[in-house]
Amino acid sequence: MSEAILEVNEVTKTFGGLVAVNQVTMHVERRRIFAVIGPNGAGKTTFFNLVTGIYKPDTGSIVFDGEAITGRDPAVIAAKGMARTFQNIRLFGSMSALENVMVARHVHTKTSYADALLHTPRYHREEQRARDRAMELLAYMQLDHRAQELAKNLPYGEQRRLEIARALALEPKLLLLDEPAAGMNPQETEDLQRRIVGIRDDLGITIVLIEHDMKLVMSISERIAVLDYGKKILEGTPEEVQNDPRVIEAYLGPGAAEGVQ
Amino acid sequence: MLEVLIQLLPSVLLEGLILGFVYAMIALGYTMVYGVLELINFAHSEIFMSGAVAGAETFILLKAAVPNPFILLALAILIGGAVAAIVAILVERLAYRPLRRRGTTNRLVPLITAIGASFFLQDLVRLIEGLWHNAFYRRYPSFEVFEATYTLPNLLGSVIILLTLWIVFWVLAYFAYWIYRAATGTKGVSRRASRGLWIASLVLTLLVAVIDRGTVFGDLGLTIQMKSILVVVISFAMLYGLNWLVHKTKLGIAIRAVAQDAQTASLMGIDPDVIITYTFLIGGFLGGVAGVLFGLLYTLVHPYVGFIPGIKAFTAAVLGGIGNITGAALGGLVLGMLEMLGGTYLTFLTNGAMGTEYKDILAFAILIFILLFRPQGIMGEQVGEKV
Known about the structure:
- The complex is a heterodimer of chains A (about 260) and B (about 375).
- Chain A has about 260 residues and is of the alpha/beta class.
- Helix content of chain A is about 40%, strand content about 25%.
- Chain A has helices spanning about 45-50, 75-80, 95-105, 115-120, 120-140, 155-170, 185-205, 215-220, 240, 245-250, 255-260; strands at about 5-15, 20-30, 35, 60-65, 65-70, 80-85, 175-180, 205-210, 225-230, 230-235.
- In chain B, strands 1-4 form a two-stranded antiparallel sheet. A two-stranded antiparallel sheet of chain B has the order 2-3.
- In chain B, helix 1 (about 1-35) packs across helix 13.
- The chains are: A alpha/beta (about 260), B mainly alpha (about 375).
């Protein structure tokens, strides 16, 4: 078992003439909190879509948990233990919070459809287990009182938490969070920060997050990669990234670094 | 004349209910496939037909070997449903999936493919039947137990009459009030006004009941055939089973997840292709069972028998809100009743100028009307929300 849970090697993805992700290499070690930052349009979400299998890379390879997953279908990759949340919340709006979580239990429920049709004892046992586990996860994200509510009727902050609960139901080894703090107030962000660290510490899940909230990124990440125009311009610890003039230039334009210093 | 109209009401509605259940079962196939693929599967009428024909063959082949008609019917339903499910899955695999793989974004392409598959299946079944029997019209054998007629209590008829009158009066009153509101420049009907309309129409109903008590509470002679009872019981059981499957099992949750957002579902480890196959299996099975029940009711089946019931069931699915499972069942029942009401009463209302044969016009007029004024259907309140 190698140290890195995710190895992305020289991956490139182009859309027409636009190089969205350009020769990006990134190794994420187990049980780390790893952040991907960069200005808007830097290719961060495209990078997530490549890792989760929504897009197939033009060149390069991706290894997850020691297994090559380049070009595999999203469902296969997800079943191997990679879960994600979305920048723009993508819950199943007209399903209850509980059902949203149970969707992600699908791969872990072992009943056949014949069992379900015949109401065998195994079906009842498995169904009950899936339900219990889903309720546990809702409770873990403090959403258990909302279990029967339709996802679309939940307030924004709870929808964000529900997305994380749903991702956790997959029992992932790696959790990708796409701008989890977007649209949150400072209290909610602080709460989220504690939860992310908790998920890593309690459940031993590696976390990769895309985030614009620098306070959050700098306080919880152990390593940070910076993308700009599809290229990885830098990778290092929060201190290294904070003090690098290239990062300031990427965000504010060339020459801006001198002005700051 | 009014007395005749009222007297006929219970039996007409009962017939409408029976037909409506058959439509509902076919409509579910359209609506489920639309839910996951956003495709109108026009080959579904032929999936229904293949179930009807397979059921007829089962009846004819096993008639001698299986003396009990009820067991025979159960076998025909299983085989008809299974054949239709297999045909549905094959159509998906061979016609629709290759197009999806190719990433065709033009919605017209799968639609034309569906129509092509429909013609192909019609003539394929005709070929098979022709080679096998040298004839492609097949007749369901009749059994005395299925044809037996039972008389229902008069009270049931009276209750049906009163409820129907109440609903009809309410619809008319609501419609009139709505037009009045629109004419005076305001829109919609308030909750209080709506309650008032309910009560007013109830009073009107009771008034009619008192004035015309001789007819309403008289000897209505309401009868039902054994085979109609079977159709209602079997389809109700199937609809109930489907409802349970979609809402209570993990397969159902997965189907709804794929229908709402296939990509997100795949990121949760659900393979959309597997779920699509199951959707065609379930929709095809229901369609096939509906085919057998249709054959039981109308006896004659042939390779082209699917077209009209198929298009009417499609109308029912649109009426209920395409993609909405409850809506499809409701749309089927409503359409069946309206068709029977129209078919019976058109003759009276036009003094015999327009007969029962115009009932199809009524069904398709409803389709046009719905598409013009409420394309999202009865149940489809939010556009974009499916299954």
